[in-house]
Amino acid sequence: MALAASALKIGPIEVDPPVVLAPMAGVTNPAFRRLCRDFGPGLYVTEMVSSRALVEGNAKTRDMMRPDPGAPVHSVQLSGVDPRVVGEAVRIAIGEMGAQHVDLNMGCPVPKVTRLGGGAALPVHRVLFRDLVRAAVRAAGTVPVTVKMRKGVDDDTLTYLEAGLTAESEGVAAVALHARTAEQLYSGRADWHAIAALKEAVTTVPVLGNGDVWHAGDAVRMAAETGCDGVVVGRGCLGRPWLFRDLADAFAGAEPQPPPPLLGEVVEVMRRHVRLLVELRGAELLGVRDFRKHVGWYLTGYPAGPERRRLMAQASSLAELDGLLAELDPAAVLPRDVWNLPRGHLHGPRPVTLPERWRETADDPTPPEGADVESSGG
Fold this sequence. Notes:
This protein is 38% helix and 14% strand. By secondary structure, it is an alpha/beta fold. It folds into 2 domains: 8-251, TIM Barrel (Alpha-Beta Barrel); 263-333, Orthogonal Bundle (Non-ribosomal Peptide Synthetase Peptidyl Carrier Protein, Chain A), CATH 1.10.1200. The strands form 3 sheets. The chain has an 8-stranded parallel beta barrel with strand order 3-4-5-6-7-10-11-12, surrounded by 7 helices. Strands 1-2 form a two-stranded antiparallel ribbon. It has a two-stranded antiparallel sheet with strand order 8-9. The model has no long low-confidence stretch (mean pLDDT 94).
């Protein structure tokens, strides 16, 4: 299936192809964003940043907010539960850190967040959700604000349609839906029918779909089946930053699923990635350690051997890692039956813990006490 897609418009920002990198804690740092951006254009968003940490001047948070050199758009994602704090964080992000796009994370399913009423639990409190979005949009002025959310807490408490309509009425520039509930976490199939339903309900701003985009053909199919205006790519690009090249080609009408690269090409990308991390961290050991979690994702399905994989995941220097990579067969291909194996988290389903009487007090506008994440990145 080939599809020549229109550019995505988020306020004054044109995203062509209509592809957005989903923030992933500990993964989508400036090194990874640069690597992906070098393969293909799109909108590359920072890791999730805590609004409270930003307002309180946390040094790590401010560092995470710095613009990527060479990036055409400085896009940041904020989390928060207090409209006053989120509004101030938006002003800092734009006024001091130069943000040109602000995304609000309303879909985090992490138990330590939902049990306090934050993340994916927050849209249940519809008035608070409205107040928070309103504060962000007003603080942003002409800078576009978007909202990313899940379907809801569970199948009994679905919030995405009401939340999407509220966000639209409060002036957001787009809404994005990860088509799973918080209870699902990352298990099962994403419900693309929900993306189509949101697109049908929200008519004046773009709707973006997220969930189960493992290769470029999935993105094209999601757009065709749901009518969504763009796709948000998360776990599908882990160990596959060249997915953004494939997406650009597919949305331009080319083959939606070209063969994966030979192992030798993968190795060269791995070498570049780890060196970007060393540069980012300012120390070889820190960069190599940071890269360890990526080893399994890059080599998924390739004939690399369990012992060599283990040694790479324990490497402490570039020389050690380079030596192990040199042992791999550069001509090895990825077998067809493992082209689209899932990457990253596969946890779930798991019951969602909410504050006492959270569902029964849905119209309470009071920010949940203690739900603000004080550190950034997840």
